[in-house]
Design goal:
Helix content is about 5%, strand content about 45%. The protein has about 300 residues and is mostly beta strands.
Length: about 300
């Protein structure tokens, strides 16, 4: 795309994610899904988590969404009722499509000499036609996530392409519904432009340093979620790092023309579908066949 046709989105909302306790020993900065930032279709929740010793997320169900876990530091183990288990290490991702139903446990690793687990969990709504598919996983270690260098490997910025495509580099992850997810690192001050499909919902979460967006010089600090405009002529977003070692995630998704009915870890499109989900879970059927018999090893140690 020529630079002439590059029109940047701009910031339409800024939400500071305040750190709070979640469960025993977990510290979470929640932006999307908090009272200040709901209805950002297709995104349901974004947590920037730090998990202390003894904390974790033992056996719990999901239906109707995808959960994306990306580790920045440390590692986290997972195990589910379909017999799937493994470990997400620093720089690795797990893209789980819950579909019609799954029960799983997510437990951070706190071995001697290991850093405290830190990362992101993003919940993405599934298009209604995929709400009741069989659950599936896409997992990549750090070596499996490709990196784009807009100005070459010696330039100021590198982009880990967790999903979607950036500067000619494409991720092998294939979400159900359009969703691009990038981890952007600046080793020194600089600017980059990321192409994004017209009309997609787009946000950035800055977790180190500070940035400005488009031609607005306003400094936007760490722990802010920046929601961008989505006008038809806006072909992407231009982000400038104002500090060396600035880091952020940049995420874009195709908006869904459907209602969100959420009850805890269940996300459907009508109240009736939620009632049916609760009944399915209670009766152990339609994706929840092991709801009352399966127990994870990692969540019950």
């Amino acid at each position: 795309m020529s630079s002439i046709s590059r029109v940047s989105r701009h910031v339409v909302k800024k939400v500071l994610a305040i750190e709070q306790s979640e469960g025993a020993g977990a510290r979470v900065r929640r932006s999307i899904g908090s009272m200040n930032l709901r209805n950002l279709t297709p995104f349901l929740m974004l947590d920037h988590f730090r998990i202390g010793k003894g904390a974790g997320f033992p056996d719990h169900p999901h239906r109707g969404q995808a959960t994306v876990t990306y580790m920045l530091q440390g590692s986290s183990r997972h195990e589910d009722s379909a017999g799937h288990k493994g470990t997400i290490v620093a720089g690795g991702v797990q893209w789980m499509c819950a579909g019609k139903g799954i029960i799983h446990a997510e437990m951070p690793v706190h071995d001697e000499g290991h850093p405290e687990p830190v990362g992101f969990q993003l919940w993405v709504d599934l298009p209604k036609e995929f709400k009741l598919v069989d659950p599936s996983y896409q997992e990549l270690g750090p070596e499996g996530i490709p990196t784009a260098y807009p100005e070459g490997p010696d330039g100021p910025v590198s982009i880990k392409v967790i999903s979607g495509k950036s500067h000619g580099v494409e991720s092998p992850v294939r979400p159900l519904g359009g969703c691009w997810f990038f981890h952007v690192k600046f080793n020194k001050k600089g600017t980059f432009f990321q192409d994004i499909p017209a009309g997609w919902t787009t946000f950035a979460y800055v977790f180190k340093g500070g940035v400005s967006v488009d031609e607005d010089p306003t400094r936007l600090e760490a722990y802010n979620t920046l929601v961008f405009s989505s006008e038809a002529d806006q072909s992407g977003v231009s982000i400038t790092a104002l500090d060396d070692e600035t880091e952020l995630i940049l995420v874009a998704g195709e908006p869904l023309d459907q209602t969100v009915f959420q009850y805890g870890p269940f996300v459907m499109t009508t109240k009736e579908e939620i009632q049916k989900t609760l009944l399915d879970y209670q009766l152990g059927r339609n994706g929840f066949g092991k709801a009352h018999t399966w127990k994870s090893e990692i969540g019950n140690q």
